[in-house]
Prior knowledge:
Blueprint: E1 3-7, H1 13-20, H2 23-26, H3 35-47, E2 53-59, E3 62-71, H4 76-86, E4 92-98, H5 108-123, E5 129-135, H6 139-147, E6 151-157, E7 168-175, E8 189-190
Parallel strand pairs: 4-5
Antiparallel strand pairs: 1-2, 1-8, 2-3, 3-4, 5-7, 6-7
Helix pairs in contact: 1-3, 5-6
Amino acid sequence: MRFRFEPLTRGDFSLLSRWRGMPHVEQWWPGPHDLASMEREYRPIVDGADATRAFISCLDDRPVGYAQSYRLADETDWHLTIAAAIGDVAEVGIDYFIGEAELIGRGIGSAMIASFVDTVWHLYADASSIVVAVQQENSASWRALERVGFTRVWQGRLDTDDSSDQGPGYLYLVVRSDPRSCDLEIGASST
């Protein structure tokens, strides 16, 4: 499987609206998903007012999902929440989902996450760790993380107002094993 991560554009908001309204996504990414809501939520990222890096994940040439990354230092409240749970060991956070329902349960999520981790190491060449918060009930997500080398480092309830992180959750961490940055280009394919 070859993945490419295309930077999110305003032209992708309708696709995000559709995906976020899919039951398998909405369960873990709750909240309004109409086009106006997607514009409000993602416009600051596209315009550069928010330091989060957001991408449409393409399998070969087909858009199949969404992935985002951010430095924890740029997200003060979330950084404090994560540090309270596991200490100040995580540098970058990621979030992701597969948007197309027929692709769930086929190993695409694990492959996408692995490819995105390679992209993240390139984006944040000085970072040595990535953290992911996942709901305990979202076994497909945390099993995909484990398949690609993430380690569960915490379980409990995070002190956050974010509805997608409410309830019993896990934190997963991966540490860069090779300190050299990869030579992957954004928009380039990753296997």
